[in-house]
## 1
Amino acid sequence: MTRFHFWMIGACALAATAALTGCKKERDAGKKVYTIGFSQTTVKEPWRVLFNERLKEAADKHPEVNLVILDADDRTEEQVAQVRNFIDQKVDAILISPKEAPGLTRPVEEAMDAGIPVILLDRSVSTDKYTSFVGGDNLQIGREAGKLAVKFLGGPGQAKGIIYEICGGLASPPAQERRDGFHEIVEKEPGIKILGGLDADWKKDNAMAKMQDALSRYSEIDLVYAHNDPMAHGAYLAAKQAGRADKIKFIGIDAMPDEGQRWVRTGELTATLLYPTPGEKGLEVALDILAGKPVEKRYILPTRVFTQENVDRGGDPVEPSTPTPATAAAPAS
Ligand code: FRU
């Protein structure tokens, strides 16, 4: 039997396979209590820990919500089982931040077929059959990272150098879009060559190992672009060990105060882009759906750019580039 990792709040303490619907009890003189199940990819990364904390804080303000957070432990099969368990237990809404698109597409469709609204958080799947999506514009973030790289390497038309790219999980849309947006900008520069591009699954240790290998193979690396800050920092640490960190610029993504922003301040990273956690907005959207209000199909959270010049004043905003979202299909009751 699948072992579920529970991280939950709300009035009910659930045993691993206990019926989640057992939580659907009447509180406060007959007011309905909603069970909202959230399947989180992993809690091995600080960004996801913050994501869960903010979501829990938001849910704490709603006595009518029982939020059940499950940790899929970075495993697709675990996450598939969690979504199917939520369906079996007939939760009122499902929030999911999918590990990857191919494996989670079908379970999301199954939940929708069962009449359960699904709100995708941060990573999407390969179907339009979901109720709403809340996350960043990763194509735009990739393009902004590309503009920074061009600037750091000499400016448009004159930029020169070798970039080593370290990718997040390439079966997930954020990694694909962060790669595509970056390449779109940087490939216009004949003086820049991009190496690397391997999947490091968002993890610092994997990125460190990839960078060690790259440093042993390439005598020149001028800039590292990593799809998140932990990987950019891992690459920085490998370069530092090899005595080459001061010759390389490092760009990451996430810009958490205690990670990316701090590393930009200390000079370990050259720049980072904010990737806001989507939990609070995701909960708000779920509650609107449960209240029968219309919701948008996509909610795009804006990014900010952080460099050494602007980090102490909170970075600079970036104009959203995403077109006006379409309204979602009729909400489930
Ligand atoms: C955490 C994380 C973040 C990244 C996001 C992309 O798992 O790797 O660092 O921005 O996922 O989905």
## 2
Amino acid sequence: MSGNQRWQQAGRLEVFEHHDPAEQEGAGQGPDFERLQGAVGEILSVVDDPGRPDLAETPDRVARMLLELTRQQPFELTCFDNSAGYDQMIVEDGIAFYSLCEHHLVPFFGTARVAYVPREKIVGLSKLARTVDHFARGLQTQERITNAVADLLMERLSPYGVGVQLHAEHLCMSMRGVRKPGARTLTTALRGVFKDGPTREEFLH
Ligand code: ZN
């Protein structure tokens, strides 16, 4: 089997299907870990001298890191009754996130702004950041994370609407290819009352 085939095989690891936190504790062992280790070793044998002593621990470290970055953590989106009858926009801004581009396996990262107008349920502010973190795990696109955050909040909170904006730098654009360091990509998902009218204006400006 060529290195490339093995890497492709490793790339198809069931990284999205493993959600068991107990299993994640042992990310330094098991068949998935070993397959990843082997795949990273194959990459090193092509891009560098795999016998170089400084690289001896690299397959181990990279395998551990990839398992950590690609396994979504289960989390509870705790909701409360909107007993105060709050009916204006709730915004959490400047949520830092880090993800891996599914096309190049290099990071993209930036900040997220998440807002909603509650109906009967509200959610702890930290949970908005957790929601972004949750979907940033794995091999992703910025568009998919943006939509997934908006859709989950619509589903769980049944609010009047949700707005999500992600502002990110993609290293696959900064380090290579078109080489535009500092170029940022902006994605927006608008649901319910955020789609138009004053709520849209308030959120976007
Ligand atoms: Zn990319």
